[in-house]
């Protein structure tokens, strides 16, 4: 019983707003005019006649009945929609002598009455469209003339190629010019249709759509802008050996979307231009002279100055090592079982394979040190055994001789296989890059050797 009472109370609360609104709708509408008395007051018959004559001038009020008593107008019957009902109240309110308006009209339930005004509006709009068809065709023709003329001018005139630094930028100029001509065509068409007020709305809608698309394809737009900037800056040339964010290889092409590298293993690496523009680029080819370095460890008791002089002399004797800048050497650190020496030298990358030159320099320096009697000790670790006397290893172990390092080979160390000759450069990467450019002939290569590099 308690639950039933609670449900009834909730239902009453839900129905209360509807009852209040219905009551407010049925209440008379008070007018702001002054209530007149005496002989100057307008009679109820005159008010009724005036309202009925006004309603006959409007469509949709054929079934509205008007009654007036002491200046209070009561409207009953049916109307098409709520808009007509509100308009009916406003019409009656404008009549002189009306004290209050009690609008009791209801919405018509007849489907024919509800559809007839819509059909009339559609027919009127169709007639207006047919009447305005010639001017509309003129506006469309004007738009097409401007748009097609702009496309023809941007495609045929060579001025874009002269003012742009490369073909990619000239295509961008052409695209922007075509958009400008299209906008001019739209403005001209709207002006012919006397609808220039729509220009602001169209431009505002275009701005909102452009902003939404910009957020949706932000990465694509960023990549496109990076392509434009890279084509202007030209940070590298075709066949340059570069390192871009950890990816190393020879530059094959720079397209409108990505930079293509050929790695030393022959793999194709596609790096988005946005990454290239914002990333760290190391160009190993811009300066043909490149330094190699390596380290060797010698005995801690050895004459370090003599060891460095021996290795430097051996490196200076190599034909591919440049005299200027000179070969360098210094002590890097003291290791666990040796002293680490650093050796440097410079080569001309146009004539020498850099990895082969470095490898041959290491081999030559190692051979020279060993031939001069300098040991290159391997790492030695001291092992402490629990329970053994601290005086050292057993006598029979101490009596054993230390192993003797084999003497350096007296064979001709300069005789190298052809594959290891530093003067023999590898052309596989360059050939792969050339093949990549040949396969991409239909796609624009933004690298232009005729332009000034960054």
Walk me through the topology.
Blueprint: H1 2-26, E1 29-30, H2 44-56, E2 64-69, E3 72-79, H3 82-93, E4 100-103, E5 106-107, H4 111-156, H5 159-163, H6 167-192, H7 197-216, H8 218-233, E6 241-244, E7 247-254, E8 258-262, E9 268-272, H9 273-278, E10 281-283, E11 289-298, H10 304-316, E12 328-334, E13 339-348, H11 354-371, H12 395-398, H13 428-439
Helix pairs in contact: 4-6, 10-11
Radius of gyration: 48 Å
Q: How many angstroms separate the termini?
A: 90 Å
Question: So how many helices?
Answer: 13
As for the number of domains, it is 4
Query: Could you list the spans in which at least 5 consecutive residues all have pLDDT below 50?
Result: 14-26, 395-404, 406-412
Largest sheet: 5 strands, mixed
Order of helices and strands: HEHEEHEEHHHHHEEEEHEEHEEHHH
Number of strands: 13
Percent in helix: 40-55%
Percent strand:
15-25%
Structural class: alpha+beta
- Average pLDDT works out at 79
Shape: elongated
Subcellular location: Cell inner membrane; Cell membrane
GO molecular function: mechanosensitive monoatomic ion channel activity
Transmembrane segments: 135-154, 175-193, 199-217
Main location: membrane
Question: How is this structure best described in words?
Answer:
- Residues 384-454 are annotated as: Disordered.
- Belongs to the MscS (TC 1.A.23) family.
- This is Small-conductance mechanosensitive channel.
- There is one protein chain.
- By secondary structure, the protein is an alpha+beta fold.
- The chain has four domains: 24-107, Histidine-containing Protein, Chain: A, CATH 3.30.1340; 115-216, no CATH class; 236-286 and 427-454, SH3 type barrels (Roll), CATH 2.30.30; 289-380 and 414-423, Alpha-Beta Plaits (2-Layer Sandwich).
- It is built from 13 helices and 13 strands.
- The protein has helices at 2-26, 44-56, 82-93, 111-156, 159-163, 167-192, 197-216, 218-233, 273-278, 304-316, 354-371, 395-398, 428-439; strands spanning 29-30, 64-69, 72-79, 100-103, 106-107, 241-244, 247-254, 258-262, 268-272, 281-283, 289-298, 328-334, 339-348.
- The strands form three sheets. Strands 1, 2, 3, 4 and 5 form a five-stranded mixed sheet that branches. The chain has a five-stranded antiparallel sheet with strand order 9-8-7-6-10.
- β12 and β13 form a beta hairpin.
- It starts with a helix and ends in a 15-residue tail after the last helix.
- 17% of the residues are buried.
């Amino acid at each position: 019983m308690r639950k039933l009472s609670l449900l009834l109370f909730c239902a009453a609360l839900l129905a209360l707003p509807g009852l209040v609104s219905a009551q407010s709708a049925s209440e008379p509408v008070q007018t702001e005019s002054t209530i007149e008395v005496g002989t100057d007051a307008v009679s109820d018959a005159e008010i009724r006649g005036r309202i009925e004559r006004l309603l006959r001038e409007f469509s949709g009020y054929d079934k509205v009945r008007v009654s007036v008593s002491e200046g209070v107008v009561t409207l009953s019957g049916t109307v098409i929609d709520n808009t007509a009902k509100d308009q009916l109240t406003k019409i009656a309110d404008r009549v002189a002598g009306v004290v209050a308006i009690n609008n009791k009209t209801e919405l018509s339930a007849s489907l024919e009455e509800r559809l007839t005004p819509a059909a009339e509006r559609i027919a009127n709009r169709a007639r207006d469209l047919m009447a305005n068809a010639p001017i509309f065709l003129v506006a469309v023709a004007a738009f097409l003339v401007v748009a097609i003329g702009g496309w023809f001018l941007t495609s045929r005139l060579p001025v874009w190629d002269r003012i742009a630094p490369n073909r990619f930028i000239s295509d961008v100029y052409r695209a922007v010019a075509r958009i400008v001509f299209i906008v001019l065509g739209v403005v001209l068409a709207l002006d012919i249709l006397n609808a220039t007020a729509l220009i602001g709305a169209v431009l505002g809608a275009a701005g909102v759509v452009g902003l939404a698309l910009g957020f949706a394809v932000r990465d694509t737009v960023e990549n496109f802008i990076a392509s434009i900037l890279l084509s202007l800056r030209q940070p590298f040339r075709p066949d340059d050996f570069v390192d871009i964010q950890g990816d190393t290889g020879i530059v094959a092409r720079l397209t409108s979307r990505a930079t293509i590298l050929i790695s030393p293993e022959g793999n194709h690496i596609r790096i988005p231009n946005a990454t290239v523009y914002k990333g760290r680029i190391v160009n190993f080819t811009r300066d043909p002279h490149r330094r190699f370095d390596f380290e060797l460890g010698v005995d801690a008791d050895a004459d370090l100055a003599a060891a460095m002089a021996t290795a430097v002399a051996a490196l200076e004797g190599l034909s591919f090592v440049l005299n200027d800048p000179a070969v360098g050497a210094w002590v890097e650190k003291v290791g666990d079982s040796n002293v680490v020496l650093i050796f440097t030298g410079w080569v001309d990358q146009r004539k020498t394979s850099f990895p082969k030159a470095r490898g041959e320099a290491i081999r030559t320096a190692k051979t020279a040190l060993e031939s001069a009697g300098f040991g290159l000790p391997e790492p030695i670790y001291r092992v402490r055994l629990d329970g053994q006397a601290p005086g050292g290893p057993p006598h029979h172990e101490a009596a054993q001789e230390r192993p003797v390092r084999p003497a350096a080979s007296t064979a001709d160390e300069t005789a190298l296989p052809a594959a290891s000759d530093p003067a023999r450069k590898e052309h596989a990467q360059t050939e792969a890059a050339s093949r990549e450019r040949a396969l991409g002939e239909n796609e624009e290569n933004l690298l232009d050797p005729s332009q000034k590099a960054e």
